[in-house]
Amino acid sequence: MDKAQLRKEYKARREQLSSETIEELSLQIANQALKLSIWEETYYHIFLPIESHKEVNTEYIMHILQGKDKSIVVSKSEFETGELKHYLLQENTVIKRSKYDIPEPVDGIEVSAEKLDVVFVPLLAYDEKGNRIGYGKGFYDRFLANCKPETIFVGLSFFSPEKEIPFEKTDIPLHYCITPTKVFSF
């Protein structure tokens, strides 16, 4: 299957999930995340889910991070440049939905990609080698390429991996992917 077919298939699979199921599976993913030895770091980047796309609800992982007193960083998409800008999530951070329905910070304290220790990565599909497929705009591949070499990339998925998916040299692989029942290590 090519990337376009995989995107279509996984969007359809997500569409079958009820809101209750998404919440339940997202909580299971957060519980699985606790098995990873990533919790001693300082700066954690997390995506805010696009509810209309039925993405993993990252609120549960954010509660873990807040409980451990970690610095949480969220992004704003700059569609003109194809880049993400990263902001420290604070109590007074105003979050608004963009015209693409993406919850994003309005502004705040900017954090460079080089400062990030762990990045939780959204995806549609991934394979047994850690290659991932997103929505196809390349925002995350460009972002991950700017992180320091030791930054840990953690995908979040409701589903098991594909055997193999097509990838290009600009695609950045994951180190882990967390599902409701298992943590995959690459």
UniProtKB/TrEMBL annotation:
InterPro entries: FTHF_cligase (IPR002698), FTHF_cligase-like_sf (IPR024185), NagB/RpiA_transferase-like (IPR037171). Its EC number is 6.3.3.2. Keywords: ATP-binding, Ligase, Magnesium, Metal-binding, Nucleotide-binding. SUPFAM superfamilies: NagB/RpiA/CoA transferase-like (SSF100950). The keyword ATP-binding applies. It catalyses: (6S)-5-formyl-5,6,7,8-tetrahydrofolate + ATP = (6R)-5,10-methenyltetrahydrofolate + ADP + phosphate. Belongs to the 5-formyltetrahydrofolate cyclo-ligase family. The keyword Iron does not apply. This is 5-formyltetrahydrofolate cyclo-ligase. ATP binds at residues 3-7, 132-140. Its cofactor is Mg(2+). It is an enzyme of class 6 (ligase).
